[in-house]
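Chapter summary example: a protein plus adenine.
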Amino acid sequence: MALEQYIRDIVDFPKPGIIFKDITPLLASPKGTEECLQLLINSLKEKQIDKVIGVESRGFFFATLLAHHFNAGFIPVRKPKKLPFETISASYELEYGTDTLEMHIDAIQPGDKVLIHDDVLATGGTAKAVCELVKQLGGEIVQVNFLMELSFLNGREKIKEYDIFTAINY
Ligand SMILES: O=P(O)(O)OC[C@H]1O[C@H](OP(=O)(O)OP(=O)(O)O)[C@H](O)[C@@H]1O
Ligand SMILES: Nc1ncnc2[nH]cnc12
């Protein structure tokens, strides 16, 4: 079954006019999850990875699977005031206003080879902010990968200096 068939469109969620891409059917399917995971893994070939970042909250699921596969550490990037230790932060533009993401200050050592994972690349604001966090701590970004890309929003333009991989393209 094509991976797209595990993604459910929810019209007008969370706001009117948005078609929300629901990944819960994919997560509920061991076969779909395995196929998707293998696509992400194969895109990285035999690259060395020290840390895998998962972006709260839907980025956490596959990021932990990827970290386990690559024998790398899992690093959560979270919304403000969720992480208990000292943090660094990066802000990014939303449609109206700004939002902030945080990471623990000791999450990455200079020179670490870092894979960034999230479920969706939409406008790219989130991904760009995460890249900035990794750069602040001196990590080397090996790839930024996503389960899916909403390519009509052109989010990859914001992170074009990095290697980008998406399993599904809309
Ligand atoms: O490319 P962008 O326009 O920045 O959008 C993509 C981000 O939006 C969604 O997260 P959301 O903030 O809805 O959080 P959630 O995963 O906790 O639902 C999605 O999981 C990405 O993290
Ligand atoms: N349409 C969408 N569906 C799911 N997650 C998203 N994040 C940003 N836009 C989204």
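Key point: The chain has a mean pLDDT of 97.
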